[in-house]
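Minutes, methods subgroup
Present: GH (chair), OT, SY

1. OT presented the first of two proteins processed in the latest run. Sequence and structure tokens recorded below as shown on screen.
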Amino acid sequence: MPIAVIQTDITTLQVDAIVNAANEAMLGGGGVDGAIHRAAGPGLLDACRAVPEVRPGVRCPTGQARITPGFNLRANWVIHAVGPVWRGGTHDEPKLLAACHQHALEIARQHAIDSIAFPAISCGVYGYPRDAAAGVVMSVLADEQHRTRTPRRIVLCAFDRGMEDAWRRAAARLHVAIAS
């Protein structure tokens, strides 16, 4: 399963599911989260509000993921994954970033999702260094390539050239196949 790395607006992709770089409340925010909520329309916010809280104000804890319909998006599903805020790398950030990607992929398998697109989770306002995040994500995806055949298509969707380059460097370093 080669991984595609592209620079585009994730909300425009024709895939079964897009992953949202969500916050724990799942009620929208800035960056990718805000763009996905705007593109999906008000039904997405209603669906997120319907996700039960696991503690006050938290529907999806850091390192986990939840799924909702895609509403007005081209994707049928949105998988909301909560990555960690970067606090210097000494507060389990790599483990939590890996976990939210692993949970998103597990949800994709449970829902027979064949194609999925990930944004650069935690690399925006959460401040995770791009190269460090790219290494974590590529390690997770390399493990997936060896373990399972689903989803069959994985897209890493960069918000800028710097993130695209970080993912490509990590793929080369870890010998992960990138689709051309």
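2. SY then presented the second protein from the same run.
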Amino acid sequence: MSKVYAKFEVPEEIQNKALEILELSRDTGKIKKGSNEATKAVERGVAMLVLIGGDVEPEEIVMHLPALCDEKNCPYVIINKQNDVGAASGLEVGSAAAAIVKPGKAKDLLDEVLGQIAELRK
């Protein structure tokens, strides 16, 4: 477990699926990139899944997101490297966080991952 804000360990397989969902959603749906946009999406209740970088420095940039997601009943995944989140979002640099707003063609895969995340959090 990388950071203090990570409340549960996410297996590599689920992280990879979440990144795949982010890529598909970027191309066929709608995503929000960056911690500010992801925070707004969660607060407005439109985020379906939030991906948070596990190696963000300083960690204060994203440490509010898990608590906010819990409060708003929004699932989230800690991804080990913020560069992976940025790449899946279509950026050449790392992204501290990203939110999936509309999954597009990734709907079935999203449903599968949401079920797996729910099992992890029990």
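Chair's summary of item 2: The mean pLDDT is 93.
Next meeting: continue with the remaining queue.
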